[in-house]
Amino acid sequence: MGVLENIEPGELYDANYDPDLLRVRKETKIKLHEYNNTSPAEEDKRNQIIKELLGSCTDNFIIEPPFYCDYGSNIHIGENFYANHNLIILDGAKVHIGDNVFLAPNVGIYTAGHPIDVERRLQGLEYAMPVTIGDNVWIGGGVTVIPGVTIGKNTVIAAGSVVIRDIPEGVVAAGNPCKVIRKVTEKDSLTKNYKK
Ligand SMILES: CC(=O)SCCNC(=O)CCNC(=O)[C@H](O)C(C)(C)COP(=O)(O)OP(=O)(O)OC[C@H]1O[C@@H](n2cnc3c(N)ncnc32)[C@H](O)[C@@H]1OP(=O)(O)O
């Protein structure tokens, strides 16, 4: 059973002082420290650490170090997952990533947030809402995905976007806030030269 399993999406919990959460996050950071200090030659060791850490994954994934997350157990990745360097996932709530998903460098997937009002924020309260990323999604460099967002299958999120609302399947979306700029069409599979 994953940590925070009994907390409802959006429900406030004590993220800063709860001893169980602090313990699990520390255990996770110890494993990630080990992972992030492996050599590229230590593929088996890398795969073993990730398999122990994540909620679920297949045998077929690459996560380039450094990689950071809070708990690991809330993260589920599909077949043929590729994450470039410096992926950060704050997984207070579940993060479901489909098959064939590519993440560029410096992607942040944040399920967690704090109350807007100062008083409760300073009590260390936090909420988390799940993030879902569909099959065959490509997320560009430096993209931020905030709590509760779903990105539909076959979609491309342009570099630097901040995804604050759900994005449908089969589109290119860009910007802050991230919005659909066009559909992916048959023409895209005919492009031979990407030179502008
Ligand atoms: C797994 C890995 O490691 S991948 C390696 C890392 N690489 C990346 O992160 C590259 C990501 N690529 C991008 O962001 C590209 O801009 C793409 C793929 C979104 C381009 O998609 P295209 O549909 O070809 O977009 P195109 O260049 O024709 O631009 C279409 C419109 O979107 C806008 N646009 C394109 N990219 C962005 C962006 N990152 N942010 C904001 N707007 C953008 C353009 O300005 C243009 O607007 P206009 O019509 O008003 O002039």
From TrEMBL:
Keyword Transcription regulation: no
Assigned keywords, A-Z: Acyltransferase, Repeat, Transferase
Any one GO molecular function term: galactoside O-acetyltransferase activity
Domain Maltose/galactoside acetyltransferase: 4-59
One Pfam short name: Mac
Coiled coil regions, renumbered to chain: none
E.C. number: 2.3.1.-
Name of the top EC class for this enzyme: transferase
Entry-linked PANTHER family: ACETYLTRANSFERASE YJL218W-RELATED, GALACTOSIDE O-ACETYLTRANSFERASE
Similarity comment: Belongs to the transferase hexapeptide repeat family.
Protein name: Acetyltransferase
High-level lineage: Eukaryota, Fungi, Dikarya, Ascomycota, Saccharomycotina
Gene encoding the protein: SMKI12G0030
